[in-house]
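HOLO CASE FILE
Compound: V07
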Amino acid sequence: MVLKNFFNKTKCEKKIAEESVNLEVIPSHIAIIMDGNGRWAKKRAMPRIAGHHEGMKTVRKIARVADDLGVKVLTLYAFSTENWKRPKSEIEFLMSLPEKFLNDFLPEIMERNIRVQMIGEKEGLPEHTKKALNKALEKTKNNTGLILNFAMNYGSRAEIVNAIKKMMIDVQEGTLNFDSITEETMNQYLMTSHLPEPDLLIRTSGEVRLSNFMLWQLAYTEFWFTDTLWPDFNEETFLEAIQAYQKRNRRYGGLKGEEMY
Ligand code: V07
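Model generated. Tokens follow.
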């Protein structure tokens, strides 16, 4: 495994040297609810958008360390369908972040062989945001490394309803047999059909809710919560989450599937 830059970060080095993180048992798919950007800004008497901007820097940091560790899929909840209720000026700023992020980071994304993908309703996004996203999806589509998957204008219940509607159309058209519908059929109709289920869900900032995020896909996922605000989240906190995941897996290691839940 090629571990780049992040080995220089001494505290991570320590965790790895102590073998408290096992580099052989890294979760394949990590999903993150990146919460606490507004609170981070408020604490500093800064506008909320300053927190979002700082949060974007954390995205870059965590994408790098996930890539270095050999994570296969990193799904980040960047914008929920609920987020449209926020003030217009804040939404406008948020919708400029994909462009900003990709302008700065796309060369490194290419260098690292990272593939950018998204889940959510792309059609609901402003034209300029869609354009930046499409460019990144297209440019990175043949990359074979980490899948950096952004949930944008995403809501899990809407995703499930859409999946059911598509299934019903296919049943009506005769391309799907009603009696052969299983859980696996449902998987195939969700936006995550091409991805493994998340092994680990992280939510920052002390909130302990799913907020309409990947409800179907998280059925067997390990959850890890931290009080750390997203802009303060770093390589070390990320390793802490992975470490917790590994500890739990070791505990369940001896049991048969049915006893694990
Ligand atoms: C956003 C920064 C992270 C904290 C959460 C809210 C604010 C990166 C992106 C992004 C999205 C798509 C893409 C490349 C980058 C992003 C939004 C908000 C809407 F292809 N950060 N970030 N998008 N925040």
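CASE NOTES: The first helix runs from residue 10 to 17. DSSP finds nine helices and six strands in the chain.
CLOSED: yes
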